[in-house]
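Hi D.,

Good news: the full-assembly prediction came through. Inputs first.
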Amino acid sequence: MDDLTARHNEKMRKIKAARDKLMATKTEQKGLIIVHTGAGKGKSSSGFGMIMRCIGHGIPCAVVQFIKGTWITGEKELLRTRFAEECTFVVSGEGFTWETQDRDRDVAAAQAGWARAKELILDPEIRFVLLDEINIALRYDYLDIDEVVDFLLTRKPQMTHVVLTGRNAKPELIEAADLVTEMTLVKHPFKDGVVAQKGVEF
Amino acid sequence: MDDLTARHNEKMRKIKAARDKLMATKTEQKGLIIVHTGAGKGKSSSGFGMIMRCIGHGIPCAVVQFIKGTWITGEKELLRTRFAEECTFVVSGEGFTWETQDRDRDVAAAQAGWARAKELILDPEIRFVLLDEINIALRYDYLDIDEVVDFLLTRKPQMTHVVLTGRNAKPELIEAADLVTEMTLVKHPFKDGVVAQKGVEF
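Then the structure:
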């Protein structure tokens, strides 16, 4: 076992120990750390569906969007115009898209989003927080995975649910999570020349 | 190759030919046949998210729910109380759940749902129809897969999107579909004794 593998295993062991300690305190209901990952569809739209579900239940909730453009207009407009009371909506990713070539700006935007995310998660009024596409910010190390996982495991209020979406979820996050779903692409119409469409893709 | 395999292959060939014919007529935008399947989370909530997205865009839409209880209260209440104008909501599955032991009643409920679904799909005002958990009704042959696939391929208006959700999507449906996502369960908290919770599971 080389040094890197040993460090990785030790890290995973620590995360598992922290998670087990957390799980040992669980009551019948608890706030979950939920991850939607994979290359398939439905990671963000399912998170958005859960947000609407919370609104239906009267559960105060929040969204921090880490990548500009994932939600182009449909859901953003609906939340901003009709549910501004029920759901706090923050876009941190205005400054970072696939086209940006300015890493410092990207890191600053991601960090600002994470700072807001922590406030929202700690807010005792809010019980459900969606961190949309945060996995992208984590993947490029715009955010420190250890800090994020440590915050979720040790600071997140017991009854608050946090959903983290995006491809390529880091193994540390999967280890820390309670509920992980991988969306797998089976078939996609883009290969047949069909463009992205309102209501389906955005 | 035995008889069953030969019949299956011939059937798939026919579906593919019908689908290719349909695809040959496609313009840049087209209504898609979309399937969410697999044992993981997010099949229904992502469909529901797409419905809310349509509402945000002002696209008239409809939901036919084939299994009672998949959407317990959150989203159903929201659609019925706040978006009754924008989204037609039909529950056909009142009569069939895992607990029902009356197959005739189940078949009748599924057939009634499918009859309404066809009307909604054909309605020129409606551009997006979610058939929630229809795969369960298809799996148990409460509905005839050939009739459903044939209707989608030959009768669905060109620009209307239809989303079909539920585990164990039949191969005929996957063959006919434009966009198929499999939700795979990576990790689930139920095994740790955590109960289903508002906002997350329903």
